[in-house]
């Protein structure tokens, strides 16, 4: 088989499942505080061989980056899905709640992300653009529908949520941030 045909071949379904399983396994370990979990332990917990792990992720950095990208993709995809299935202000509220979950995941893997050999500036730059695009679209939709005031600045909403997470050293910050979403939504309502 030529290299060109190999490059265009879709991954096998079991390969795709293994890829996702490895990301979810690593994510669960990171959330449990196991940032330095050995590579072979991730494979064991995912019930795959170490060769399967290395086929998908040639090194630790690749796995950590994949976990981060997976969380970012979920957040980006949710904006579209929510906009298609929920009323505008409800879609915005639910996305903001998911954004808090994204911040929490990012905080857990931040030490590992910052240690990436390839650096994180390009990764973070792409995430900022994705997040900004998502919230801009959701806010515009809610304004257009008359649910919230037209003078709402989407980046201010993100700053408020990120600000709560930066004071997040104390346990329970996520619940506090999620309560803040309802306060923000109430304060944005059109009069």
Span from first to last CA? 65 Å
Helix content: over 70%
- The fraction of residues in strands falls at under 5%
Q: What structural class do you assign from the helix and strand content?
A: mainly alpha
Unreliable segments of 5+ consecutive residues: none
Describe the protein in words.
The mean pLDDT is 86. The protein folds into two domains: 1-58, Arc Repressor Mutant, subunit A, CATH 1.10.10; 67-191, Orthogonal Bundle (Tetracycline Repressor, domain 2), CATH 1.10.357. The protein is built from nine helices and no strands. Helices cover 76% and strands 0% of the residues. The termini are far apart. The protein has 191 residues and is mostly helical. It has helices at 3-8, 13-31, 39-45, 50-56, 60-85, 88-114, 121-144, 154-166, 173-188.
């Amino acid at each position: 088989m030529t290299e060109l045909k190999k490059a265009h071949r879709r991954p096998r379904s079991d390969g795709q499942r293994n890829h996702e399983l490895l990301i979810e396994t690593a994510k669960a370990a990171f959330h449990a505080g196991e940032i330095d979990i050995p590579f072979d332990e991730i494979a064991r917990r995912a019930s795959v061989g170490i060769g399967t792990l290395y086929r998908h992720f040639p090194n630790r950095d690749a796995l950590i980056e994949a976990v981060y990208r997976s969380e970012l993709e979920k957040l980006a995809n949710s904006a579209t899905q929510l906009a298609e299935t929920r009323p505008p202000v409800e879609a915005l509220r639910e996305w903001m709640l998911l954004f808090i979950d994204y911040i929490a995941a990012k905080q857990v893997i931040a030490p590992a992300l910052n240690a990436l050999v390839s650096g994180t500036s390009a990764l973070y730059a792409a995430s900022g653009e994705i997040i900004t695009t998502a919230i801009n679209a959701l806010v515009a939709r809610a304004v257009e529908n008359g649910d919230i005031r037209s003078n709402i600045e989407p980046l201010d909403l993100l700053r408020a949520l990120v600000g709560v997470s930066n004071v997040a050293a104390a346990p329970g910050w996520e619940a506090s941030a999620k309560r803040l979403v309802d306060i923000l939504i109430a304060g944005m309502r059109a009069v």
